[in-house]
Every structure is written in structure tokens, then in C-alpha cells.
Amino acid sequence: MAENNRRRLRRTTFAFWMLFFYIIAALIWWFISLEKQNTRLANEQLKIITEQKDSLSAFQYVDLSTAIENEKARNSTKYILEGTTFFLSILVGAFFLFRAVRRQFKIQLQQQNFMMAVTHELKTPIAVARLNLETMQKYNLDPEKQKKIIRTTLDETERLNFLTNNILVSSQLEGQRNETDKEDLNLSDLLTDCLKDFRNRYHEREFLQKVEPDAEVKGDPLLLQMLINNLVENAIKYSPKDKPVKAILKQSVPGIILEIIDEGPGIPDEEKKKIFTKFYRIGNESTRKTQGTGLGLYLCRKIASEHNADISVTNNEPCGSIFTVIFKK
């Protein structure tokens, strides 16, 4: 599907440039034709007064010749100015049209990649939950195994709930239909509770935290919880299982600083700004191994913006990434 889109983009680009160069060639031909006509008209007029030279005084002949040459020069200048205006108008229009077409193809490709990713993301927890329920229905399992299967099923439904919330809130924020219910809240307690939930869900993972108490912010608890969850989920997704995920919350002069740190492969410098774009994911759907829809970090940027905060990513030496959110005072 992606290859078909690339071929369509190449065909459209080729047709666009062919049409563009045809228009430019027609403009040049128009200028040459008008200039030839202008020269021919001036030569005819000069020929006429030359034939009437005997009946004209030298002064009249020079005046008429000069007037014809000046008229020819004015017409040439007019054609040049008109041609330049047309050329610049065509050039500017072609630039914006070409950029709009490429952007539309890019958005369409991202949306198709999103649909592929979200279909996979939705099918996996549904399939796992169904398999677990069918297993419990078919076999008479001992209580310990039943407890384990129920825990797995709950984890998968939580994953499904997390995904659908991301899609819903992203749509609401994009359409500016979400009325944020901001209140004074303790970000320290919220972060601690989120990390506690992650420890319960990911028993094999190590979560380190350094949280200063009583970090007060004004915001929407649900949106800020989604911001933290998306950043921690992202760190879990892209870092090895034997490496810890760190969360730091501190108060400083710029404001309250939240950092989520992982020890994964890191993010190339040229990708650092792109990852906060809607649907954008590093690589392509056919080669990347990690799950995701390309909404998480976009949603983090939108939520941060809603709370007068800046979000950025830097390198964690020797490896990994540091996602930083600064809630301004």
C-alpha cells in the first residue's frame, strides 16, 4: 500500500512538473511572438516613412523614426513586465500547489499507516482477552491459573482502554471540542499513583522515581494522567526489559519539571521534532517492531500546550532519551 502511494506521488509529481514547464514554455513563446510582432510592426512603419522621405523634412523624418523606436521600446518593456508578472504568479501558485499536494499525500500515507497500526493494536488485546475467556470456559483451571489469566485479561482491556482514550482525546483536542476542567492538583501524588499502576502491570520492569513533594499545578487531572502514562508507556516500549525507567519531578526557577528517562536506542537528532507530529512514527509499518499508533507523543504535546507547558526530548548519555515537560510558573 505504501509503495502504491509512493508511485502515485511520483506520477503526480511528474505530471505537475510537465504541466508547469509547458506553461512556462507557452509563456516564453507568447513573449517571443509578441516581440516579433512588435519588431515587424516597427519595421513596417519605418519602411513607410522611408518611402515618404522625399515629402518629409529631415526634422520630421527623425521625429517619426524616434517615435517609432520609442513605441517599440515601450512595447518591449510592457511585454517583459507582463511576462515577469505572469511568471512570478505561476511560480508562486505552483509552489503552494505542489506543497499542498505533497502534504496531502503525506497525510494520506500517515493515516493509512495509522489505520494499519490501530487495527493491529485493537485486534491484539481483543484476541488475547477472547482466548483467555475461552480457556477458562473450556478448562477447569485451578484458582492460581485462573487468577493469572484474569490478570492478563485485565491488562489487555486496560491496554484497549488506553488506546481508545488516546484516540478520543486526540480527536477532541484537535477539534477544540474538549472543555478542560482545570483545578489545583498535586502533580507529585498523581505521578506517584501512575508509577504505582505501572509497577502493578509490569512486574518484571524496574521503575525508579525521584519525586519532590507538593508540586502543585493547575490542570485537568485526566489529561495530565494521560500525559504521564503516554510518556512512561513510550519509555517502556522503546527500552530493554532489564533497563529501568526513571521518573523525576522537581521544582525550579522556570517552573515544575517532569522528566521521563529511558535507556533505549535513543532518537536521531533529525527525528526529535517530527515525533510530536500526529501519526508520525520512526520507520514504517512494514519494518518497525514496536507497537503504537503515532498518537501518544502528539497527544503529549497537545496536553502540554493546554497546560502552558513545553515538552522536548534530549539524549540520555550514553544511550536512551529524556522527555522533559516544563510547567511554567
Q: How would you portray this structure in words?
A:
The protein has two domains: 2-112; 183-328, Heat Shock Protein 90 (2-Layer Sandwich), CATH 3.30.565. Helices cover 63% and strands 13% of the residues. The chain contains six helices and seven strands; from the N terminus they run H-H-H-E-H-E-E-H-E-E-H-E-E. It is elongated. It is of the alpha+beta class and 329 residues long. The chain has a five-stranded mixed beta sheet, with helices on one face. A two-stranded antiparallel sheet has the order 1-3. Helix 3 (143-174) crosses helix 6 and helix 5 packs antiparallel against helix 6 (296-306).
Compact summary:
This protein folds into 2 domains: 2-112; 183-328, Histidine kinase-like ATPase, C-terminal domain (Heat Shock Protein 90), CATH 3.30.565.
- At the fold tier of CATH, the topology name of the largest domain is Heat Shock Protein 90
Beta-strand residue fraction: 5-15%
| Top CATH class of the largest domain | Alpha Beta
User: Which percent bin holds the helix content?
Assistant: 55-70%
Parts with pLDDT < 50 across at least 5 consecutive residues: 284-288
Give the ordered list of helices and strands: HHHEHEEHEEHEE
Oligomer: single chain
Overall pLDDT confidence: 83
Question: How many E strands?
Answer: 7
Helical segment count? 6
Shape: elongated
Distance between the termini: 47 Å
- How many domains? The number is 2
Rg to the nearest angstrom? 34 Å
CATH homologous superfamily of the largest domain, by name? Histidine kinase-like ATPase, C-terminal domain
Structural class: alpha+beta
Q: How do the strands of the widest beta sheet line up side by side?
A: 2-4-5-7-6
